[in-house]
Amino acid sequence: MPVSVPLSALVAALVGAGGTLAVLLSAAKTLGATEAETSSWVCGVFLGVAATSAYLSIRYRMPIVTAWSTPGAAVIAGFAQGVTMPQAVGAFLLVAVLTLACAAVRPLAGLVARLPSGIAAGMLAGVLLRFVAGIAEQAVVSPLLVLPLVVLFLAMRPFAPQLAVIAALAAGLLFALALGAPLPAFGDLSFSRLVLIPPEFDLGVLASLGLPLFLITMASQNLTGFAVLKAYGYPPPARTILGTTGLASLLTAPFGSITINLAAIVAAICTSPEADPNPATRWRTGPFYAFFYLLLALAGASMVAVFAAMPAALIATVAGLALLSPLTGALTAAMVEDRHRLAAVATFATTASGASAFGLGAPVLGLAAGLAVAGFARLRS
């Protein structure tokens, strides 16, 4: 077996976990999660990713790897003010049920796929914008910490784009310690524990949080992940993937875990020829990827403790840098189709505004605005 197989899996796990953990922790902070609940969230979602990646890769002999919904975490961090952790768990359960429904009922998956890609991309871009813009805000507040990280990220990105965020995170931790940030005592570090969080089903939260989570996860994660597998010659078993990730999400949601979905960004690391020149044996990256995520799940509590001791500027900056490429991709995709370009801009502007009305958050209002503009344009034509 080529050494590139476990190395590619390790890089994919580090990029997927370390590069976007700051977004996940920002989401947990917005929901007012305790450190124990946050640790449970991280542990649960890592375990779900490990289990689903191992099962799907071994069963289908394809490098099928999963992840959590980073754009979904961005929705929570940016638009879930006032939502409690139990209410968020209720929304996570709704997303899991809708995902299972798409796996069981083929027309539902087709209906989601028919959502104009420009509008879906516009909604995603509107969600991500405030995180990337937050880099500038933090650079004004903490220039000595933020600006070196941005320079390092930009310097590394042309040569090692997958590792640029990891490098910025590692350097940020060192800078924060040098500037006097407290490091948790060894006795404060521990293995992760799952904490059961009883769900609370609030109709307003289900509509304003659950629906955007589902649509963004399907459009920006699952559909993109299917495209990555196809691009490398692997026909994705779409309904089984949706059923597996939906079931895993249903089982881990009561422990605070956000939706599990097909990996999009890190999938290319595990499916490319660089991982294994032989397409027939490239699936072995999946079990290695799962193994590394299992190790990360055990260390989830310690990771949360370390991040909790770091300055808010560091977390915000790393989150913004991690979402810079997804924002670029979303803005590009939003402008591709000329017939939906105006609708995509309307969706983007409304979502980015942060406006809310009738108990609905900006992502739902942005989606409604985009569909209304697209519908009006269709009537005129």
Automatic annotation (TrEMBL):
GO terms for molecular function: benzoate transmembrane transporter activity. Keywords: Membrane, Transmembrane, Transmembrane helix. It comes from the Bacteria. One of its GO terms (cellular component) is plasma membrane. The chain crosses the membrane at residues 38-58, 89-108, 115-133, 139-156, 163-183, 203-229, 241-268, 288-307, 314-336, 356-377. Pfam families: BenE. InterPro entries: Benzoate_Transporter. This is Benzoate transporter BenE. It comes from Xanthobacter tagetidis. The lineage of its organism: Bacteria, Pseudomonadati, Pseudomonadota, Alphaproteobacteria, Hyphomicrobiales.
